[in-house]
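Run log, item B.
One chain of 300 residues. Sequence copied directly from the ordering sheet:
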Amino acid sequence: MSENSVQLQIRPEYEAQGLGAADHGEIAHSLSLFERIRNINAVRKFSILLGLIVLWELYVRIGGISEYLLPPFSTTGRALVMAFWDENLLAMIGSSITILLFGYVIGILIATALTTLAVTSRFGSDLLGTLTAMLNPLPAIALLPMALLWFGLGPDAIVFTLLHSVVWPVALNTHTGFLGVSDTQRMVGRNYGLRGLTYVAKILIPAAFPSILTGLRIGWAYAWRTLIAAELVFGGSIIDTEGTSSGGLGWFIFSNQMDLRIPYVFAGLFTVIVVGVLVENVVFRKIEQRTVARWGMQTQ
């Protein structure tokens, strides 16, 4: 086809008149007070907790359950208030958390050393893999009798069991996160000349922080329940040896169980739950918001 045979068709101009306002529906609207409150994470979780408490109270009241088997929450709440007022429960919580933090920090330092060695040398990787396979399935509380033989009737025995609860989940999750770092990020670090600890601190840790935070959460949960279990069995002996007047939270539960003060037992158990919820939703949630959520690694 020749160029002369191509004819351009020019459409006449058309101007629309009298167009009305476009109606696309409501694009955005202001949230009501109820919707704003419902979007608060703490309010939603507190509502779930409140609902469980109501179900607890109704189940005991309607079912006619004996208070020696399951006291209602109202009785447990009164016992909890009296425990703070007369039983020095706050000091017991402080004693337990102090021991827990001491073991938790030492466990994190050990896990950091093992993981750093694992990502910088083949021997370290083999060492961490072997130790994790051997010791991670072993319950931490099973080591407490040996810890008492090695360290005596004191807080050191409990700290030793806490180390076992913290080291392996933190090290395993951290190492898994390091292995998941992309090759692009690794090559960027090497191109900048980063080696050894500097490479780990500036490249691997920020990239693997979601896995590291998961390990810290799991390590905290394992350590908290191990501490309560250890105090349930050996808390009294440890306190008597030191000559102090009160034990930890686990010993509070055990001593009241021996005296058949069941509402106080449930008050202690409820305190264990509340402390765990507060640490998870205040401490770790705040860390998550300021790190991985802000960095766009995961949604809030």
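Observations after the first pass:
- Residues 239-245 have pLDDT under 50 and may be disordered.
- The two ends are 62 Å apart (CA to CA).
Flagged for discussion on Thursday.
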